[in-house]
């Protein structure tokens, strides 16, 4: 017979007999809902308490996540992934528009053709370069006109009047230092440069994630869980207004 010195039974101080099945009674300071002298029920009770505690914690975590899940979806789907996709598209469609100031000196070397008509009308003096015969010339000798042939000697100066048009056709070599001061407008579409391929590659990397996140609902009211009959429940649990 097992006894323990805690309380009296049937008027015998200090002795309490054990139950008839031979199991010992727990001390008086142990809670009877936790320990009833059997290991199996005690373990079951402890496991139930742990499971209940874990479930309560998980439910609390799920409620907190449910309150913030669409905020996270907006941040990741619309602002991060969607923002990257839209900016990659905009960058590929963008233009570089600016003005370039050009200040330089250019050396020009070329052959310039010169073709024009030169009119001449002036009095001048020429010198014969050889003996020049003049036939049927007329001289006056003692007041009488005498026809004869004469020869003008080489080196004889003659006063003449020029009245003519001289055609000029000539090629002149040109070598000039030309100062250049220009304002050049520039409009370069990026999709016609080498940047087009990297922009398309980045857009294609982000596009699947953008297509995956874009159709997702933005609130619990847009889901099938929170319909007309359960809107008050969503409002109470997740802090949203009923639709």
How many independent structural domains? 3
Mean pLDDT: 76
Q: Name the poorly predicted regions.
A: 1-25
Count of separate DSSP helical elements: 3
How many whole angstroms does the radius of gyration measure? Answer: 59 Å
Helix/strand class: alpha+beta
Number of strands: 4
The largest pleated sheet is described as: 2 strands, antiparallel
* Share of helical residues: 25-40%
Can you list the strand order of the major beta sheet?
1-4
Q: Secondary-structure element sequence?
A: HEEEEHH
- Characterize the overall form: rod-shaped
Taking the alpha carbons of the first and last residues, their distance comes to 71 Å
Estimated share of beta-strand residues: 25-35%
Write structural notes for this entry.
This protein is an alpha+beta fold and 243 residues long. The chain folds into 3 domains: 1-26, no CATH class; 39-97 and 196-238; 99-189, no CATH class. It contains 3 helices and 4 strands; from the N terminus they run αββββαα. The protein has helices spanning 39-93, 196-213, 231-238; strands at 95-127, 132-141, 144-152, 157-189. Strands 1-4 form a two-stranded antiparallel ribbon. The protein has a two-stranded antiparallel ribbon with strand order 2-3. Helix 1 (39-93) packs antiparallel against helix 2 (196-213). The chain is rod-shaped, with a radius of gyration of 59 Å. The two termini are 71 Å apart.
